[in-house]
């Protein structure tokens, strides 16, 4: 059997932001600047920026409890026709043993009726903005991995 070797992802950027609400804007701006010129349409770039901002906000608030001394690490890679962004925080302790896809799917009617809490839209939104998302936890490190294909016409079911 013959296999085709994939090139190793090439790191385009690596940076950290303090866990202060609002710093998600710094992360989305730096990611957007990093991937400029790689071939994402403006609509797909906007979706990636939204996903990065939401994942960073979750990392700041939930992962690092808005503690400025705990940075959120962001890395941007290119692997062939894929852009990969990882957002990592120190919130792994509380998530260990919890399946990554166990979050209840938000239901607007149930939320309005008080059957679901008002929060819980973040991961749902992120999944529908990018082509793929994965969540991993290793010890204290909790990482959200976002993938967006370059040149694809659709991300997560939305139209450009």
Q: Would you mind describing this structure in some detail?
A:
The protein is α+β, with helices and mostly antiparallel strands. The chain has a single domain, classed as Histidine kinase-like ATPase, C-terminal domain (Heat Shock Protein 90, 2-Layer Sandwich). Helix content is 31%, strand content 26%. It has helices at 24-35, 42-63, 92-95, 108-112, 122-127; strands at 10-18, 71-79, 82-89, 132-138, 141-149. Strands 1-2-3-5-4 form a five-stranded antiparallel sheet. β4 (132-138) and β5 (141-149) form a beta hairpin. α1 (24-35) runs antiparallel to α2. It is globular and about 45 Å long. The N and C termini lie far apart (39 Å).
Keywords, separated by commas or semicolons:
five-stranded antiparallel β-sheet; 160 residues; single chain; Heat Shock Protein 90; 5 strands; alpha+beta
CATH architecture: 2-Layer Sandwich
**Spatial order of strands in the largest sheet:** 1-2-3-5-4
The overall pLDDT average reads 84
* Helix share, percent: 25-40%
Largest sheet: 5 strands, antiparallel
Order of helices and strands: EHHEEHHHEE
- Spell out the CATH superfamily: Histidine kinase-like ATPase, C-terminal domain
Stated plainly, the CATH topology is called: Heat Shock Protein 90
Quaternary organization: single chain
Overall shape: it is globular
Radius of gyration: 16 Å
Question: How many strands appear in the DSSP assignment?
Answer: 5
Percent of sequence in beta strands = 25-35%
């Amino acid at each position: 059997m013959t296999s085709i070797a994939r090139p190793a992802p090439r790191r385009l950027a690596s940076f950290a932001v303090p866990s202060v609400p609002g710093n998600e804007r710094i992360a989305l701006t730096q990611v957007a600047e990093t991937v400029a010129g790689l071939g994402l349409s403006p609509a797909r770039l906007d979706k990636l920026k939204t996903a990065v901002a939401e994942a960073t906000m979750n990392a700041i608030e939930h992962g690092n409890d808005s503690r400025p001394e705990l940075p959120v690490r962001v890395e941007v890679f290119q692997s062939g026709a894929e852009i990969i962004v990882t957002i990592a925080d120190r919130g792994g302790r509380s998530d260990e043993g919890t399946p990554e896809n166990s979050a209840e799917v938000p239901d607007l009617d149930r939320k309005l009726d008080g059957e679901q809490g008002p929060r819980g839209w973040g991961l749902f939104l992120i999944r529908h903005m990018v082509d793929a998302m994965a969540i991993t936890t290793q010890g204290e490190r909790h990482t959200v991995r976002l993938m967006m294909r370059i040149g694809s016409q659709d991300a997560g079911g939305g139209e450009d």
